[in-house]
Design a protein that fits this description.
This protein has 14 helices and no strands. By secondary structure, the chain is mainly α. α2 packs antiparallel against α10, α3 crosses α11 and α5 runs antiparallel to α9.
């Protein structure tokens, strides 16, 4: 294992994903979410292809064994991306980032419901803490708790982002099954292809002809998103997920900095408290799953050939 290299790659991926989200947010006043998804997906495809060519794995990396698995992951992932991009037009960048962490909590619930995974008291408690964090963020937007009028767009934005987090969790659950048979590059490549095709269907619903600068932003978002996915994939090759995964939450720091200096977004107290609770719950779940994985590994090692 090379944990320092893995963490460095993961942080690069996190920074690139936040920059990508910032580019999408900057374009969101003029470009609808469906069109943004199209550019993000289309221009990620050549990045993945070039990477595979450099590795000499183009033929094996794009081989498909589960067409329906790719289709399901593609649909769920496209919906997640579209909802997140729509949320970026309605909410501050740090708030969208914080609410998107909800997907890690939902993965625990969905794994128990759909994959039959056993979930103990510790992880259930962590999920509850995380959901309390979500409520802390949402409380000011609910009239019964809010101290003043809240724009309907903010409420809509929060709902849209949470729907996106739900689809993201579904996509991750699908990937958990797919990684047993599918190459990681194939999963990323066919997701981008599926998202490109599905988002192109939104063309009749308000697409715009972007200016040169705006088109450049969208193309750059796609290239950066593709590069971020590669860095993310590479990071998990050099260390266990328990070491790498918690650095997902570093995205909040970058989102706060970019939100403040680029978009003049000042974080609120409830947003910071809620984000901290969600992040703490997510990290606790990651560490617990790592611990359970070690216990399962030791149990398998101790089994006799007859089991």
């Amino acid at each position: 294992m090379q944990p320092v290299k893995a963490i460095s790659l993961k942080l690069c991926a996190v920074v690139l994903f936040i920059i990508m989200s910032s580019l999408i947010k900057a374009a969101s006043d003029e470009v609808p979410a469906g069109q943004a998804v199209f550019f993000r997906s289309l221009f990620a495809v050549p990045v993945t292809v070039v990477w595979l060519i450099m590795l000499g794995q183009l033929s094996t990396g794009l081989r498909v064994k589960s067409i329906w698995g790719h289709a399901g992951r593609g649909i769920a992932g496209t919906m997640a991306m579209a909802m997140m991009f729509a949320g970026l037009a309605l909410l501050p960048l740090p708030e969208v980032t914080a609410l998107s962490y909800t997907s890690s909590l939902l993965i625990v619930i969905f794994a128990a419901l759909f994959l039959g995974e056993k979930v103990g008291v510790f992880r259930i408690s962590a999920v509850c803490v995380g959901l309390i964090g979500v409520l802390v963020i949402l409380a000011p937007k609910l009239s019964v708790f809010g101290g003043g009028p809240v724009a309907a767009s903010e409420v809509l934005g929060a709902v849209v982002v949470l729907i996106g987090a739900t689809f993201a969790a579904i996509a991750q659950i699908t990937i958990r099954s797919m990684v047993q048979t599918e190459h990681p590059a194939a999963i990323a490549f066919y997701f981008s292809v599926t998202a490109t095709v599905l988002s192109a269907m939104t063309m009749p619903f308000g697409w715009v002809i972007p200016s040169g600068w705006l088109a450049g932003q969208l193309v750059l978002a796609g290239v950066i998103g593709g590069a971020a996915q590669i860095f993310l994939t590479l990071s998990y090759r050099h260390a266990d997920a328990s070491i790498v995964a918690p650095f997902d939450y570093a995205s909040m720091l970058f989102a706060l900095v970019i939100g403040y200096f680029i978009f003049d977004e000042v974080p609120t107290g409830p947003m910071l408290i809620g984000a901290a609770l969600i992040a703490a719950a997510g990290i606790a779940i990651i560490l617990r799953e790592h611990h359970l994985g070690l216990k399962r590994g030791r149990a398998r090692a101790l089994r006799t050939p007859q089991g």
